[in-house]
Specification:
The complex is a heterodimer. By secondary structure, chain A is mainly α. Chain A has a single domain (about 70-370), classed as MetI-like (MetI-like fold), CATH 1.10.3720.10. Chain A has helices at about 1-35, 60-65, 70-105, 110-115, 125-135, 145, 170-190, 195-215, 235-260, 265-270, 275-290, 290-305, 310-315, 325-335, 340-370; strands at about 165-170, 230-235. In chain A, about 35% of the residues are buried. By secondary structure, chain B is α/β, with parallel strands linked by helices. Chain B folds into 2 domains: about 50-170 and about 325-390, 3-Layer(aba) Sandwich (D-Maltodextrin-Binding Protein, domain 2); about 170-325 and about 395-435, 3-Layer(aba) Sandwich (D-Maltodextrin-Binding Protein, domain 2). Chain B has helices at about 1-25, 65-75, 95-105, 120-125, 135-140, 140-145, 150-155, 175-185, 190-205, 215-240, 245-260, 270-280, 290-300, 335-350, 350-360, 375-385, 400-420, 420-435; strands at about 50-55, 80-85, 110-115, 155, 160, 165, 170, 170-175, 205-210, 285-290, 310-315, 320-325, 325-330, 390. Chain B is globular, with a radius of gyration of 24 Å. The N and C termini of chain B lie far apart (about 70 Å). Classes of the chains: A mainly alpha, B alpha/beta. At the A-B interface, helix 1, helix 3 and helix 14 of A face helix 1, helix 3, helix 4, helix 17 and helix 18 of B.
Chain lengths: ~375, ~425
């Protein structure tokens, strides 16, 4: 007993310095940023020795989402959301596909694995520069067909002005309500098989919310006083391609390790039961690798949220078509001297990242509690 | 027991480290950002006083011009150890961010490069971080040799804040004379002339006006706006006397929207050099760019000014000289103030100016410079600078401060997408209120 308590004290003392450091340099600074985002620190005299800072509450956030000058931020935010979704689908999908191919143990598997993993070792600024050259409007891939005597392509990989999946920012509240009702209904449907009563607790409010917006949509206030259209800008395709190229090798390595970890017996048993290769992966291997998929999603989603250097290298700092909130935050803070607005953008990004990570953490704790 | 002791020692060491970290900012440790920091970092102790740290973004093509100035300085001040702290990146994007973190950390360089005008005044002077240079201007007799209009733009009622090293012109339209002859068009005097020529050019499959990424659109906007509203209104705009959402302001955006329709679609992925290349290669007829384009075409592309490439004031702005200037200021609390003042004296001198500018491809801010050292284009620019109405550039930091400039980039992106002149003018008005114009 005495030995145990002494161990505890030792453990505590050993951890104390890092606890203090993390307390100050992570949580302290997060707190400071939150406070800064609620002041009016910016504009003229922002860089004085003792700059004037007044508490103004949530004004900075309101301006970003509904103010006249927040248009750039809103466009960047929409870009980031589309960008994250495409990157996740692309990198996880492609990584898994390559891993499955390599799992068949083709000839030269080692070499191929190295080749696919290699892009990870480049920094974003380097790969961004290379991809900018490749995707330049009058060079790179666009002139590839001329080597075969064909006409050059004219696709504007990085400079296209068109967008698809366009929506009006005025409607953002209605869209969010629809999305929430869709999530509630989906959760309810998933629970329907196991527990009907619980399922209704999800289904009823979900359907109610959806119906309400459908019928009384006009009652939901406009988020913005005039039409402002945002969508998936085709110019981001080039950037998404470069990021997928860089990170699919990484997800491939994660999956490959996972596939190798599945015992051969299990595979043999599945084959003995008459499973085809596709069936084995679909019903046995991939479901077993759910934790790997979740960690890949979490890692990639926060990488996509803090994306900075790749975009800077490929399309430059001021490009609304491919802008990103992280880039906007840097420019707002260090070029525009709007420290409070910059802090508010940072906190918005922080909250979005939290929506990916917090549910994961909660489910982890629950699982641990069950054990 | 031994383990406990070891643990406690480690803990103590960590605590010391922590305390050390806390103290570091007061001690002013070595400045990390300078990439060329082979020389030891300057000690803040004024007793030493034989270092001079020059903070700039002049590297690459512009490096030799800065070196020429440093040579003169070293000759005059042999005892001083010059530290050339360059942070690369066009128009100071990276350097200014590094500078801000250094100044906020209480660690100013001895003298730093900044675009003359509001970029300095609205940022550092309003924050009370700069020393007034009026006494230096009077001592050196610079009040007489620098044009009056220029001194007004780099000063406020409280003083003069920087020493301009060079003058660039922003409202210039470039073309290749032989190409224009081939297409049968003339360099336009007004935007209406341009539209007439542009329709003809479009029919021949030539891009009428080459444009590049975002900041070059801002650059084009200032020339168009100056043409739309005239020099008096332009000045009134920045003095806060003419609102951005007035009829004149909206008219500027409308004209700009019309001009945009004649530019290339892949603009956002081109650098300004690539836009200039379009003109040289004959894919585009005209390009509005600052006169560093003349340096690029003369030095890199080996074209003769006048025959290889031609220029006019951008349409509708003849008689106005929209300028921007690189300049150096003196931050309060510079570790080696005397050395920095000596550096500023070199910058403002005739000798320094004429050594620097021919290499940089710009003209001297002094009215008495030796024009024989400059090429054909620069001589014509110097002549215009002497007689034209001098107005400040927005895109290059003379007319407005950082806050406005940064916000304007995002207004520009919104306009490119929506082409809504009213909304853009209103956004500018809000931005001006925020930036204190």
């Amino acid at each position: 007993m005495r030995e145990a308590s002494r161990d505890r004290i030792k453990a505590f003392l050993t951890l104390l310095p890092s606890m203090i450091l993390i307390g100050i340099f992570v949580y302290g600074f997060i707190g400071n940023t939150i406070w800064t985002s609620m002041t009016d620190w910016g504009g003229m005299g922002a860089l004085a020795l003792e700059p004037e800072k007044n508490f103004i509450g949530l004004d900075n956030y309101i301006n970003l989402f509904t103010g006249f000058l927040g248009g750039g931020f809103r466009q960047d935010l929409v870009n980031a959301v589309y960008y994250s979704v495409m990157l996740l689908a692309g990198a996880v999908g492609l990584g898994m596909f390559i891993a499955i191919l390599l799992d068949q143990k083709p000839k030269g598997e080692d070499v191929l694995r190295t080749i696919f993993l290699y892009p990870m070792s480049l920094s974003f600024i380097v790969s961004g520069t290379i991809w900018r050259w490749l995707l330049a409007p009058r060079g790179g891939v666009n002139i590839l067909p001329t080597y075969a005597g064909l006409e050059p392509m004219t696709f504007d990989w990085l400079s296209s002005q068109s967008a698809i999946l366009v929506f009006n920012w005025q409607d953002i509240l209605r869209i969010l309500l629809y999305a929430a009702s869709l999530v509630l209904i989906l959760i309810g449907l998933a629970k329907l098989r196991k527990d009907t009563r619980k399922a209704f607790k999800w289904l009823v409010p979900g359907i109610a919310a959806g119906l309400f917006v459908w019928v009384f949509g006009d009652l939901v206030p406009d988020a913005y006083m005039m039409e402002e259209e945002h969508g998936f800008n085709l110019a981001t395709i080039g950037i998404i391609m470069a990021t997928i190229w860089q990170y699919s090798g990484y997800t491939m390595a994660l999956y490959l390790a996972g596939f190798n970890g599945i015992s051969q017996d299990l595979r043999d048993a599945a084959m003995l039961d008459g499973a085809s290769t596709t069936g084995y992966y679909r019903h046995v291997a991939i479901p077993m690798l759910k934790p790997i998929t979740i960690s890949a999603v979490i890692i990639l989603s926060h990488i996509s949220l803090k994306m900075f250097d790749l975009i800077f290298a490929m399309t430059g700092p001021d490009n609304g078509q491919t802008g990103h909130p992280a880039l906007n935050m840097y420019l707002t803070t260090f070029r525009g001297n709007e420290f409070a607005t910059g802090a508010a953008i940072a906190i918005v990004l922080f909250l979005i990242a939290a929506t990916f990570i917090v549910p994961y953490l909660i489910s982890q704790y629950r699982e641990r509690g069950r054990r | 027991m031994k383990k406990v002791l070891l643990g406690l020692t480690m803990l103590a060491a960590l605590m010391l480290l922590l305390v050390g970290c806390g103290e570091a900012p007061e001690k002013k440790e070595a400045p990390a950002p300078a990439p060329k920091a082979e020389a030891p970092a300057p000690e803040p102790a004024p007793a030493k006083g034989n270092d001079l740290e020059i903070f700039s973004w002049w590297a690459g093509d512009e490096g030799p011009a800065l070196e020429a100035l440093i040579e003169i300085y070293k000759e005059q001040n042999p005892g001083v150890n010059v530290i050339n702290a360059t942070v690369t990146g066009g128009s100071g994007v990276n350097a200014q961010a590094v500078l801000k973190t250094r100044m906020l950390g209480g660690e100013p360089p001895d003298s730093f490069q900044v675009h003359a005008g509001q970029e300095l005044i609205g940022t550092w002077v309003k924050a009370d971080r700069m020393e007034d240079l009026t006494p230096l201007f009077k001592e050196m007799g610079w009040m007489e040799v620098f044009p009056e209009g220029l001194i007004k733009l780099i000063g406020t009622e409280d003083g003069i804040w920087s020493v301009p090293v060079n003058i660039h012109r922003s409202n210039v339209m470039w073309y290749v004379p032989a190409n224009l002859e081939k297409w049968g068009v003339e360099a336009p005097k007004t935007w209406d002339d341009f539209f007439a020529a542009a329709d003809k050019l479009k029919g021949m499959g030539v891009t009428p006006l080459a444009l590049a990424q975002n900041w070059t659109a801002n650059h084009l906007w200032e020339s168009v706006a100056l043409a739309a509203m005239g020099a008096d209104n332009w000045d009134a705009l920045w003095a806060g006397k003419l609102p951005f959402d007035s009829a004149e302001g909206v008219k500027a955006w409308e004209l700009f929207g019309k001009v945009l329709a004649y530019t290339n679609a892949d603009a956002s992925s081109l650098s300004w050099q690539q836009a200039t290349d379009m003109v040289i290669d004959g894919r585009a007829a005209f390009n509005v760019m600052g006169d560093w384009a003349a340096g690029y075409m003369t030095t890199t592309k080996k074209l003769e000014p006048g025959t290889g490439y031609g220029w006019v004031a951008s349409p509708g702005t003849g008689g106005s000289f929209m300028f921007l200037a690189d300049s150096f200021g003196l931050p309060k609390g510079a570790p080696n103030r005397d050395a920095a003042v000596a550096w500023l004296k070199v910058l403002g001198s005739k000798e320094g100016s004429d050594a620097f500018n021919p290499l940089k491809g710009s003209i001297s801010a002094r009215t008495d410079s030796d024009l024989n050292k400059y090429n054909g284009y620069l001589q014509s620019a110097a002549a215009d600078f002497g007689k034209d109405r001098v107005v400040g550039s927005l895109a290059h930091g003379v007319a407005a401060n950082d806050t406005f400039k940064n916000g304007f980039a995002s207004v520009m992106e919104m306009f490119m997408k929506s082409k809504n002149a009213d909304a853009a003018a209103k956004a500018c008005a809000q931005l001006a209120a925020k930036a204190g114009i």
